[in-house]
Records
---
Amino acid sequence: MPVAKILIAPDSFKGSATSAQVAKALADGWKISRPNDEIVIAPFADGGEGTLDCIESVTPGSVRIPITVQGATGIEHQSSWLLVGSDTAVIEMATLCGITTVAQLDPLGAHSYGLGQAINLRQAIDMFTINAARRLGIAENAGSISVGKYADFIILDQNPFQIPVTELHKVQPFETWIAGEKVFERVKP
């Protein structure tokens, strides 16, 4: 019977060890001194380095999306973001353009341009269309416009692929159709 139940929930040690590595090392050390204690390991992240790893470890079915982005000093590198469910993107800025992406710190020249490169418009639209249909198990019948699929679509006032990304928030729907039926129509002024 354990003498005590010990929770080990560390954050990462920036640039040297992940939260899972730190948790394992602490647990191994604890066991040397107190082998009868029950140890629960719960790696933790505060939203920075290691966040994707922690969220991925508790969300079965989440998918890492590999990307190439500029680091804090403009040098391109491989990174990723996490698709959780069908429509939630988790982005870890530390891996996109944090200090671990540079060889030499340059606080006056550093930038976060890589953050804006993380998810492109096609990926964002897919999250709310075909990805959602796949997650719901209805991709054979919905999620994209194809012969034989439900007529689920939205008529917009602008083509989102032909305007600057900075103008996307201005795009408005005229109509929304689900399963071949109009479920929304914007009232014309």
---
Amino acid sequence: MDIQVGKGDIDVPLADDAVQPAFNADRVAEFRAAFRSESAFRAFYDRALPRVYGYLVSRCHGDTALAEDLTQVAFTDAIRRRDTYDGRSEATTWLIGIARHKLLDHLRSEARDEQRRIHLTVREITVDGGSRPWQEIDDRALLTAALGRLTAMQQAVLILHYADGLPVREVARELKRSESATESLLGRARVALREAWQEVSHD
């Protein structure tokens, strides 16, 4: 997996520091330095790639092809939008945020056309309303099968709330829904997961 950086992506002024001061000037300066040369970008890319790819592949249930595609899209978008980085978080964290949105775009597409499915590994959810966390469940094959029976939007709300740990308000913003609609979706997703789990357990 590799990202091609052309001459147009290097040595390009990003933003006027005097006009829009950064929240963290040191982070912004370090990030911009990554675009001064191809070797500098390569060093940044090699540092950030494992975390961005790791975030995606863990949420694509090992679908490495999809994770690689989304990783490349995330890096390409980050290059295009590099002048919007303000240092409020580490550059890699900012990149992971972009990756999350690319994953959500993919899920929205799944929800619209229903032609393909994505298996998302969601942690720290209880299966039957009790206190047993998912990470204690040994049969990952059953978990994968159960998740595969959910709709794309049900998978999205589960991963954002439980795997990424976002509160309902932020999940609603990511999914472009009201909080009440998101609460309802989350409730339906939990019920659907519980039913799917019971079904695959008895297949």
